[in-house]
Write a structure and sequence with these properties.
The complex is a heterodimer of chains A (207) and B (128). Chain A is built from nine helices and two strands. With 207 residues, chain A is mainly α. In chain A, strands 1-2 form a two-stranded antiparallel ribbon. Chain A is globular and about 45 Å long. Chain A starts with a strand and ends with a helix. The relative contact order of chain A is 0.15. Chain B is an alpha/beta fold and 128 residues long. Chain B has a single domain, classed as Rossmann fold (3-Layer(aba) Sandwich). Chain B starts with a strand and ends in an 8-residue tail after the last helix. Classes of the chains: A mainly alpha (207), B alpha/beta (128). The interface between A and B is medium-sized, with 18 and 14 residues.
Chain lengths: 207, 128
């Protein structure tokens, strides 16, 4: 079980992690995208950080919805509406809750995936964050069923997300600026999948 | 009169499209929502919301976007105002803005302007 205070700590750590990897994410995006992913995400999470005083003691649903709205309002690139929708959908599934367990997390994760698919009109195999999200969720589910060990399940999720990032190097982009590069997008990893793997790594390290 | 919002990653591009429609369709209700708050490239939820508010009436608003996050962010703005009559047009930005505003100042309804814009999507510029 994790409570709303822990959720806030995790969000803060996600912000720190994104900020640490800001230049790396932007570099990846420079190659195939419009070169703003790291800067945009760091700006979004810096604004999220400013909302923290108003979120102390709020339920998990409110926290996640606020994070989502803030990202939508401040990120400025495609990752704003995509991560924004993911967090808002997650928040809607946890309205009023002050605690969540691994099953809540899996449910929320599914909502987030569906939100991203809907918003981006995308699916797996198109060189997007979904190529990290979907296998990660499946790995967590499977490992949890096999071992009933949350820590192991989350670690398996992170490993699957990283594999998903590697997989994005092998496929042609079908979404966003990178899609106009066609085959020239092969060999480069997707920045959105990469930032998602970083986010999941933070979550896994804190539960 | 139907209002218009021009959403672009570029502040200057959005403003210039609005300026151009001012010459082609004087009196049209149209607002620019380009770039981020600091003027850099990107699309801003708040700028789009404010632009919608600026031109909104019961006749409705049509939003024209460039691409990518401009479309997704506009979608989220529309979802945040479900009670309002706002539609996104799926057509080229500049051509759509000009033809749409000309259609709107002639008093056509939102549905009629949208129909005009659906034709803009297939407009042939260089007939054989």
């Amino acid at each position: 079980m994790i409570n709303q205070y822990k959720v806030l700590q995790i969000i803060r750590q996600i912000g720190n992690k994104i900020n640490e990897h800001k230049d790396f994410l932007t570099e990846l995006d420079n190659v195939i995208g419009d070169g703003d992913h790291g800067i945009n995400m760091a700006r979004g999470f810096a604004e999220v950080e400013k909302k923290f005083p108003t979120l102390e003691g709020k339920d998990i649903g409110t926290i996640l919805k606020t994070v989502g709205m803030t990202l939508v309002s401040t990120v400025g690139g495609a990752s704003g509406p995509l991560y924004g929708t993911a967090f808002m959908k997650a928040g809607a599934a946890l309205t009023g809750k002050s605690e969540m367990d691994i099953n809540d997390f899996l449910n929320v994760f599914q909502q987030a995936i569906e939100g991203v698919m809907q918003r981006g009109r995308s699916t797996t195999g198109e060189k997007t964050m979904l190529d990290a999200m979907v296998p990660a969720k499946e790995a967590i589910e499977k490992t949890l069923a096999d071992t009933n060990d949350v820590k192991k399940a989350m670690e398996a999720g992170v490993a699957a997300a990283k594999e998903g990032v590697e997989y994005t190097k092998t496929i042609i982009a079908k979404k966003g600026r990178a899609s106009y590069l066609g085959e020239r997008s092969i060999g480069h990893q997707d920045p959105g999948a990469t930032s998602f793997a970083l986010i999941l790594e933070v979550i896994a390290s804190m539960v | 009169m139907v209002g218009f919002v021009i959403v672009s990653h570029s502040q200057k591009l959005a403003e210039s499209v609005v300026e151009l429609t001012g010459a082609m369709a004087p009196g049209a209700k149209i607002a620019a929502a380009g770039g981020l708050e600091d003027g850099s490239f990107g699309t801003s939820f708040d700028r789009i919301s404010n632009a919608v508010n600026e031109v909104y009436s019961d006749d409705g608003v049509i939003v024209l976007m460039d691409m990518g996050s401009a479309v997704m962010t506009t979608e989220m703005v529309l979802e945040s105002m479900p009670e309002r009559k706002i539609k996104m047009a799926d057509c080229p930005l500049v051509e759509g803005a000009i033809i749409g505003t000309i259609s709107a100042i002639s008093g056509r309804s939102l549905e009629a302007v949208l129909k005009d814009l659906s034709e803009v999507k297939n407009m042939v510029k260089i007939p054989n």
